[in-house]
Amino acid sequence: MSGVLVIAEHRRGEPAESTHELIAAGLRLGSEGAGEVRVAVIGGGVTQLAERCGADGLAEVVAFETEASEFEPHLAQAAVEKLLDDLQPAVILTGHTVDSFGFAPALAAWRRLGFAPNVTAAEWNDGALRAHRGVYGDRLVAALEFDRDTTLLMLRPGAVAAVEPASTPVRTERLDAAPLATHIGYREAATEGVDITKSEFLLSIGRGVGEEENIERFSELAEKLGATLSASRPLIDAGWVPSARQVGQSGRTVKPKVYLALGISGAAQHLAGIRDAGTVIAVNTDAEAPIFGVADYGSSVDLFDLADELEARV
Known about the structure:
Blueprint: E1 4-7, E2 10-11, E3 14-15, H1 17-34, E4 37-43, H2 47-50, E5 60-65, H3 73-87, E6 91-95, H4 98-101, H5 104-110, E7 114-125, E8 128-135, E9 140-146, E10 151-155, E11 170-174, E12 201-205, H6 215-225, E13 228-231, H7 233-237, E14 258-262, H8 268-272, E15 279-283, E16 297-299, H9 303-313
Parallel strand pairs: 1-4, 1-6, 4-5, 5-11, 6-10, 7-10, 12-13, 12-14, 14-15, 15-16
Antiparallel strand pairs: 2-3, 7-8, 8-9
């Protein structure tokens, strides 16, 4: 067994952002000795899409054509099983996503593969695979070593920086299996018209804001600064801020150029969501708050005093 097989994700004819993150993780394993890296794009009419799922360093992209116009778990599993038999990869990488959960755990159990979900990093060392994942609510990181011929890892979106797309040879295969479901359509989740994952400047608030009536003040401050308002989980759970604005493991993983955190202590779940932020500025009256451990700049001034100063200057 050798090589890495990456299972690309796509929606409405577009590669998912996580696809090139998975490829980056696969290429790293390949460079450490795991072997050649291949990408599989599974679905109906995916040959053209497969051309956009390449990257420098890949051996090939396999366009696995099925009869389903949209994702269907049993067809995805059947396609991956065929690739597993044909290629015998040492590692299979999927996203830790709703689509992959539709088939990846079942495939690992059925084929008795090594398996780990919610993986944040992996390396290949002396012929052995080691994967890292958060445990106890991400308070600790577990290092798992595998001795199976093939191991399937589900990589957390945002855990690895994506590689740039590049031209890669595409090979087409076809799966002779019928769909079991009919795709009716998509229903978009309510987002308030905001996508915090696309913002270059986030002003994020936590339980330090004190009361619900203070939310509007910081929302207006964010608008004046040209930032997007986001929040930590306690404010979401309290119903003070919509869930579309939540940053963290159970919310959104964000990559802004500037992340201004006001009154956020920095629980492990929150820090997981800002691991790829550019400049992190933290303000918290608790000088021992965990968020200062990842901040580029920090201050223990009162966040309301800081808000007064910012409002006076914009």
